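Ticket closed. Logging final result for UspA domain-containing protein.
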Amino acid sequence: MFDTVVVATDGSDSVTRAVDVALDLADRFDAEVHALSVVDASEVDASPQQLRDELRTALETTADAALATVENHADRAITTATRKGRPAVEICEYAREVDADVVATGTRGRHGENRLLLGSVAERIVRTSPVPVLTVRQLESMRQSNADADESATPV
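Final structure:
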């Protein structure tokens, strides 16, 4: 049923669980796994000119680290790729190119105003993907432990 699984990753906490679920799905169907990270060109373009090279380098480093994390979680060989552009567009295009059967992505599960103001890459992928999309929400317990860690690291 699933021969090719694409997991989209940006290295964020909300993607960690999606990576695990995608790898489990691939194991169950003995599917090929592709991990994709997209450097958001709009972030670079929106930054001041003097910061663009530094920001681009930082985003590329983050993408490389995100892909390395997926490779470290996998017990099989996976194909990794980095793209530059708009994340949802690039993820959907990549899914077409590799003839994916499913795209797995994380979501923070924002609702209401936050979703409307911030947008959602996962939502755009769901609306435009040529193949089914598996969205995996970060568990509430994971969000709380991350928030607790952030609080404890904040100087008073």
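DSSP finds seven helices and five strands in the chain. No further action required.
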